[in-house]
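HUMAN: Ready with one sample?

ASSISTANT:
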Amino acid sequence: MIMTKPQYTIQAVAKLATAMFLCGLLCFNISTNAIAQKMKTPDFAYPKTVEKNASANLNRAVASGDWSAAVEAAIQSVVASNLVSKENATTGIAKIDSVAALAPSEWKPAFLLIKADIYNSIYNSIQWQANSRQIPTDSVPSNPYEWSRDIFALKILDICKDVIDSKEPTNLSLKEWSKFIENTSDAFAFGMTVEEFLCQRSFDLLNTYADATKDVIPFFTNQAEPITPGQKCAALRDVAINQLIDSAASGKRMMILAKALSDQANALPYSLRMKAFLEAYDRLKGSEGEQMILGNLREYISIDPMPGEESVFPYSAQEYVALLKASVADYPKGMYVNNLKNIINSLSQPTATISYQDQYLTSSDISMSMTLKNCNE
C-alpha cells in the first residue's frame, strides 16, 4: 500500500507482519505483507501502554523459552513503538536483532522476517520518494525513511539470504507459527512446512525489489552475473522459488507446487509466461493442482484469431473446454472447480461475430461475413 504521508496508519502498522494464505480465484495467494497479531489484539489507540506491556511479555517469553509468544510480543512492541514515533523504527529493529541473537536456530527466521517486514512497510509508505532518490549504497542514512529503493533492496536481499541460509530441515510445524500468522487453514490443509513458508515469503519480499527480466528464462545459472540491487534480488528470488518447487514436488504437496509454479511463471516476462504455464500443466496433470494452472491458461487462449493469424496456444477453444470439463469431473470438490465452471460457461455462450471491410469506395458493394459459435444449426 502506498501512503500519502511518510508514517504508518494504525490499521497498516497493526498488521506489520502478517503471513496470509488467502485463496484467490485463479491462484491461492500466500501474501505476507506483514506479521500481525492474532491472539489478544491490544488496543493500539494507546501505543505507549501496548509497548510497555509487550516489552514485559517479551522478556517473560524469552526467559521461559516460549518463542512463539516471544515473536508475537516482539511484533506488538515494534508496532506500538512505531505508532508513538516513526523515529523509533531503528530502535525496534535493534530490539528484534537482540532477541533473535538469543533465539534457537529454528526460530531465528521468524525474527528475520519481522525485520524484513519493517523495512518493507517503511518502503511501501515512502515508495514514491524512495524510488526517486539517488543515494550511494555504501553511504546509508541512519534513518530508513531517508533511504532509496536500492538501499531497501539490499537490506531485504541480505535478510532473505540469511533466511534461506538458516532454512534447514526441522520438525517445526507451521502450526506453531499460528499465533502470529493469519488465514493459514489452507496452508495447513495442503501441508505447507515452515521451510516452504520461508521460501514463499522470501520470494514475495524479493519480488517487490527485483528488476524486470528480459525475454529469456532467468531460472538458470548461466546468466550474466547480477550487478544492480534489483538484479541481485531477482536472482535470489529465483533461488527461493526453485527451492520451494523442489520441496513441494518431493513431498508431493501438489497444491503448494501449483502455487509455486504459478508464481514462477508470473515472475517471467509476459512473452514467456504461457510456455511456463503449459509446462506447469504438464507437470501437474492428474492432480488437483492442474485446476489452478488451467484457470491461469484462460488468459492465453485465442478464441477469435485474426484472419491469417496462427494461435500459439496448443489447444483450440473446444479442446480447452474439454480439458476443463475433465478436470471438473475428476476433482468436483477442488478449490478452483467453480472458477473452471465459470470459464466453461463463458466459453460455451452462443456468439455471433460479423466481419466486414472497414474501408471501401462508395460505388463498391459491401461484403460481410458472420461467424457463429455454440449456436444451434
In short: Residues 241 and 264 are 7 Å apart (CA to CA). The beta strands are 20-22, 29-31, 351-356, 368-373. Confidence is low (pLDDT under 50) at residues 1-39.
